[in-house]
Amino acid sequence: MDTYASVIVDITHNKLDRPFQYRIPDELKDQIHPGVRVVVPFGKGNHTQVGYVIGLSAKPEIAPDRIKDIISIDESGTSIESELIRLAFWIREQYGGTMNQALRTVLPVKKKTQAKEKRYVFLNIDEAEALDILQQFEKKHQTARARLLSALLEQSPVPYDAVTGKLHVTASVIRALEEKQILRVISERTYRNPFSGFSVSEALVSLNQDQKAIVDQILTRRNSGDTSPSLIFGVTGSGKTEVYMALIEEAIAQGKQSIVLIPEIALTYQTLIRFYARFGDRVSVLHSRMSQGERFDQYERAKNGELDVMIGPRSALFTPFSNIGFIIIDEEHESSYKSEGVPRYHACETAIERAKMHHANVVLGSATPSLSSYLKTQQGKWHLYTLTDRVMRRPMPAVSVIDLRNELRTGNRSVLSRRLRDQIQDRLAKKEQIMLFLNRRGYAGFVSCRSCGDVIKCSHCDVSMTLHRDKRLYCHYCGDSMDLPKVCPSCGSPYIGTFRAGTQQIEAIVQKEFPNARILRMDADSTRKKDGYESILSAFSNREADILIGTQMIVKGHDFPGVTLVGILAADLSLHVPDYRASERTFQLLTQASGRAGRGEVPGEVIIQTYQPDHYSILTAAKQDYVSFYQQEMIYRKLLHYPPAWEMMLIHIDSENEPAADRMAAFLALMVREYLKEENTRCWQMIGPSNAGIAKIEDIFRKVIYIKHADADTLTGLKSFLEAKMDEQPDPAVSVQFDRNPM
Ligand code: ADP
Ligand code: ZN
Ligand code: ZN
User: Fold this and answer.
1) Does 223 score more than 90 pLDDT?
2) Closest ligand 1 atom to the C-alpha of 241?
3) Are 299 and 320 in contact (CB under 8 A)?
4) β-sheet bridge partners, residue 324
5) Virtual torsion, Cα 488, 492, 493, 497, nearest 10 deg
6) Can you give the pTM of this predicted structure?
7) For the chain, does the N or the C end have fewer beta carbons within 10 angstroms?
8) Does the CB atom of residue 366 touch ligand 1 within 6 A?
């Protein structure tokens, strides 16, 4: 039985890591959960303070007789903080890490700001009630509170500085009365509006029949109380964004707010301007280039009811709206929705959890849904809506696949196939635009054959092996290794090696072939400058260049009506990332890149160059046939028990001390077997412990264990079990992290 509750009394400042333990009185036992607001005695004088429960425990952290009791539950309205703390608790349970890390994820922490702002304290209740409360304060000898309240009865508002200065009332007393809604603190500062300076010039479009049908069905289901998520599977340019906006408008009419998540990279001026044109000052945005203060302002605007819509990447999910109608996740397949830091939460799963708290609807959209999302629609857990046509009946581009092995065989060693070179020439002559996409995801060291296209894979795990500096090939899953062969194991050709060509080299080659072409390059280098990304895009959009060369950055969501040719230089590079999702990533990249062609009046053409023209992810992408891809890929996932067929959990074990890391890894592996010993071995699998892909970084040794299981909840239980076991025998020299369905 949990006897103690950890309570934080100040969540607005940087003190989340300082919870205090309180005893839970018997009569409150059933009502104390993470997120609940409680009144507790605090500090030497035992002033009452409102705090939030963030965890429960049976163990006292200090001498039990020094632990104070919780006084009561604070019932004055449910606060948005309570909800976010509950969400943090869920995140911690689900994905591991500490509660403090989870809280930092969901609560925007205010840094001490230098800027002076003029603030006022207002009385928020009528005079009679105030006099009543004043008497209570005086009876309880709460002199600071009494002093403040009588000052406010004389004059409201009072400048904040005067309250803390002349009246000697501390900020925490002000906050306590604010929490009880006796007073309000109002700042004069006008929040920075990230959209200021935008000019609005977009005409409203009226939805076509397909779009309208989806909006109607989602709303009908919603109004009948159905809160299961919806997946809109719509080809690129099919008008999904218009559907989102129509749903948001309906939510606004019902007095509800909406959150729109987009991958950071697709958060372009073009997208923002469309939302701004529609929702004006009631929409705001969060992005990584904003300062912490600017972001905090936007959270405050949301909390104060100044906004109906928040757009942003992953973290916008935690916008403090109190009454959410829709959470929309565009490009839901994007890996950036998975947090790469602890807690390693996934925004889609977390959005669904947050939506439950509001009876809100989650709407996900993609031209290439993730396998796990599509599977949910096939299992009947989510609704599926399909947009098969581009708006205005614009045709899908014509796609051709070029076999690079043939080019080599017939003496063309250039990165450009003959057909691609001819087509570039043709478009340059017609003054149309061209995008060249270098798929660089797989860059890290796989070994392939230029004659037959084969890639050296691990015989146990069916993922590509990676060449290390010691000239041996390693499997990043099971740790198996082999010498680098001198000739291709499949065809005996000596043309094997790692593929090396960067965007800069491609640019040089293309420039040499077409000396008069105006070329722009977009990659990590050329976008490093602030606004580098935006300025390259707008230059290309304004037709200041003929050819745009880039990495995955150029395939996301941009609308360039002038582009009629898209060349994909080495389609299969991403097939060889040592990751079970390699085919899925490849299909997505190729489909998204193809979607860039022919967004204007002139139909587009796509040329896919590859060493593996027969690979199903390339064939299905060329036909823009997602369903076939899904079916073939699911067979493979089921066969090898990879997600979403099974659930996977990765345990990272890091230490400067290698024997300590090995000891912990062995201990955890033993505990995994212990926990799962009753289960049929046909529904779970453990791979490792083994060295991580990079076995040592900055003198830290890294070990990994992969566990696959048919049931997600069992893995959540296993994680908690392992955490408890590590608590019993802690080893401070080792750090252990959990990662669910790692990316
Ligand atoms: P997606 O999000 O599926 O890629 P968008 O909503 O961005 O598609 O639509 C692509 C383009 O088509 C945009 O320029 C948009 O303004 C336009 N569009 C969308 N719906 C319609 C419509 N019903 N009538 C005319 N144009 C539309
Ligand atoms: Zn070969
Ligand atoms: Zn392996």
Assistant:
1) yes
2) 6
3) yes
4) 257
5) 10
6) 0.80
7) N
8) no
